[in-house]
């Protein structure tokens, strides 16, 4: 920016330009290196912004005080109403007794209304006084008695005595068993223990008496089914029995498995005693290329030949 006369600019011209220009049109200058800026002290604080903040704080504080006074007045009114309700309950009776009375049919005011109604019916003084009045005296309207409940009107008559109603009291509350709280240690942890299982009275037991090999009463040996496959189609169940008997000195039960597909090999299930299972599951026990493993699932029932 240069002067109109063509001379060089000065600082005064820049200040005049900033004062005459609208603040919204003045660009915002940003420092690239903050370390080169001078430090800001309390002398550079804008007092106007602080005064605005103080004024807003005072206004908000006054609003809070006004709301507090309103709430205190509301609490005082509620306390007054609560005291009035307590006094009215103390005059009418205990709440435990009123809870057993059907107030819709007028049973709540039976003790007081019955006696007042009976005394009003039995005293004919107002009727006699109104019959013998002077002719110049105006008659005042007779007071209308308050409407009484139907139950009181039915039970009270001029010739009947006053009836008192006994209201059943509340039954005594049963004592509630309080569970003992789990005790925690000094660090606040609770030790959790597993519940002990009930000992079954009909638990199975095993005998320990020794038995001879030729004795008829002896325990059966548990068997494990073993699956054997990829055997030649000419192999029979008797061939497997002979093979196992030569190796284990035991005659197993062999069952032929029928395939749902047309295959050129046979598969069998051999029931081996569990004590011989490690030997049978060894790869050196069976011939080469014979597939074997423990049988999966349930063994199919044997078909009877007809």
TrEMBL record:
Keywords linked to the UniProt accession: Coiled coil
Stretches the record annotates as Disordered: 138-162, 195-219
Skewed-composition ranges (Basic residues): 195-206
Coiled coil, from the record: 61-88
Protein name, UniProt field: Uncharacterized protein LOC113500197
